[in-house]
Amino acid sequence: MKTLYQQFIITTLSLMLFSTIVGFFLTNTYYHVVTKEQNDEKNVAIAQNITRYIESTPDLDLEHYLSTLGDIGYQFYVVGESGYSQFFGGAFKTSELPPSAKETVFKGNIFHGMENYPNQSFMTGFFTNKIINTVGVPFIYNGEQYGVFLRPNIGLLFSEVHTILACLIISMAIISLIGMLFVAKQLIRPITQLTEATKQISKENYDLLLKVKRRDEIGQLASSFNQMTKQLQETDRSRKEFISNVSHDFQSPLLNIQGYSELLKSPSITEEDRLTYTSIIETETKRLSLLTKQLLLLTFLDQPTRALKRSSFALDEQLKTLIQKYLWLIEDSGIELYYKIAPIRFNGDEGLLETVWDNLLTNALKYNKPNGSIKIIVEETNDDVFIQFRDTGMGIKEEELSHLFERFYRADASRTKEGTGLGLAIVKEVVDFHRGSIRVSSQFGKGTCFFITLPKL
Q1: N or C: which end of the chain has fewer CB within 10 A?
Q2: What is the mean pLDDT of the chain?
Q3: What angle (nearest 5°) sits at the alpha carbon of residue 221, between those of residues 217 and 225?
Q4: In this predicted structure, what is the pLDDT of residue 384?
Q5: What pLDDT is attached to residue 450?
Q6: How many Å apart are CA 144 and CA 105, to the nearest integer?
C-alpha cells in the first residue's frame, strides 16, 4: 500500500514526465501539421525568386552567384540535363538524390522534399541536412534546363529553435500547473465528501456514497465507509420492505378468517353458506401456513453460513413422483401433460430441488388455460442438467419478466390466484444455491417456459 507522501512524490514525478512527453508530442504535431508545410512553401518562394533572377539576368555568372548565396546561409545543389552537377554553400550530410526528383524539376515541376520528408519523432526532419530534405525548382540557363535544390543552412535556424523551445517550455508549464491543481483538488475532495456523508448517515440518509477511486489510506477509508453505507442501506430497505410485504400478506387472510368467523356466529346462517364460509377459512389458513413455510425457507436461504445437504438421488424419479402427486389435479383440470425425462442421477439438495419442481409445476397448472397442456423435458450433458417447464397458459407481459423472481412480486391481478409472491423467488434462490441458472421465456396469451441449468458437481 502506498502512503499519501509516497503517492504524492510518484504523482509529481509522473506529472513532470508526462508533461514533458506531451510537450514534445504537441510541438512535434504542430511542426508536422503546420510548420512543415509552411517551411516548404517559404523555401519554394525563395528558390523561385532566385531562379527568376537567374533567368532574367543576361550573362550571369551562375556559379559565382550561387556561391555568394551559399556564403550567406543557403545550401544548393544544381543539376543540368546535360549532366552538370555542382554543390554550393554548406555541405550536405547525404548527397544522394533520387532520379525521380531530378526528373520532376526537368519537367518544369516543383520538388517538395521538405513537405514530403517522412514524419519522424520531434521534428528531426526540420534539422536533417540531407539533399532529399530540400525544395527543387526548375530554371533555364543559357538555353538548357536546370534544377536547383535548396535548403537553409542549419546555422540560420537559431530563431526557429528559440520558438520551438519556447513552445515546449510553455506547454510543459501549463500542463504541469493544471496537473498539480487537479491533484490537489483530488486530495481534498474525498475528505470533504466523507465529512458530508457522515452527517447524512447520522440523519439516517443512506443514499449518499463516496465516489473515490484510490488505493491509499483515503481510498481505503472511503471504500470501508461505502461498504458500511451499503450494508445499512440494504438492511434498512430490507427491513421496511419485509415488514410492509409480510404485514400485507398476513393481514388479508387474517381479515378474511375474522370476517367469515363472525358470519358463522349468525344463528340464521344456512348450511350451504356455512360450508362456503368454512371452506374460505380453510383456504386462507392453508395460505397462511404456506406463507409461513416459505418465509422460513427464505430465511434459511438467506443465511450466510448456509450449506447444501448434497446427496446423489434419481432426479427423474423425483419428477415422476411429483407428477403422480398432482395427477388428480391435472386430470380434473383437463390439462394434457407431456414429459420426456431421461434417467438422471444428480448430486444436490433433494429437498430444496423438490420445492423448485413443485413451484414450477403448480404454477403451470394454476395459470394454464382450460384444456391446455404442460410439457416437462429433462436432458443432460457431461457437465450440466437441463430442465424445461413449458405451459400453454396466459403468459406473462414483457415488462413483468424482469421482476418475476423478486420477493412478494405478483403480476397483474389475473395471475395472483391466492399466491404469496414468494414461490419464484425461492426457485431462483435454490437454483443459485446450486450454482445454476434460470431464465424465462413467455408470450402474453400464449404460454410460458422456464429453462433451468444445473451444473454437475
Answers
A1: N
A2: 80
A3: 170
A4: 93
A5: 94
A6: 13
CA distance 17 to 10: 11
For 120, the grid coordinates are 519522424
Cα 374 to Cα 368: distance, rounded to the nearest angstrom:
8
294 or 380: which carries more pLDDT confidence? 380
Locate cell 526528373: which residue? 103
| Joined grid coordinates for residue 23 | 510537450
How many whole angstroms separate alpha carbon 301 and alpha carbon 360?
18
C-alpha–C-alpha distance, residues 389 and 340, integer Å: 11
**What's the pLDDT at 390?**
94
What distance in Å separates the CA atoms of residue 163 and residue 383, rounded to the nearest whole number? 70
Quick one: DSSP state of residue 155? Answer: G
Integer Cα distance of 424 and 400 in angstroms: 13
Residues contacting 101, CB < 8 A, separation 6+:
111, 113, 132, 136, 149
DSSP β-ladder status, 373-380 and 336-341: parallel
Backbone φ and ψ for 384, nearest 5 degrees, come out as: -135, 160
The answer to whether residues 315 and 331 touch, using CB atoms and an 8 Å cutoff, is no
Angle, helix 4-30 to helix 158-202, in steps of 10 degrees: 140
* Residue-level pLDDT at 29: 78
Neighbours of 31 (CB within 10 A): 22
Instruction: Residue 62: count other Cβ atoms within 10 Å of its Cβ.
Output: 19
Cell 543576361 locates to 58
CA distance from start to end of the chain: 38
The x, y and z cell numbers of residue 197, run together, are: 456523508
Q: At what angle do helices 271-301 and 217-264 cross, to 10 degrees?
A: 160
Parallel, antiparallel, or unpaired: how do β-strands 74-80 and 144-152 relate? antiparallel
The mean pLDDT of 36-41, rounded to a whole number, is: 82
Q: Which three cell numbers stand for residue 167?
A: 513552445
* Helix, strand, coil in percent for the chain, rounding step 5: 55, 15, 25
- pLDDT tens for residues 180-191? 767 767 676 777
CB 122 within 8 A of CB 36: no
DSSP 35: I
CB-based contacts of 419: which residues, under 8 Å, 6+ apart?
A: 366, 410
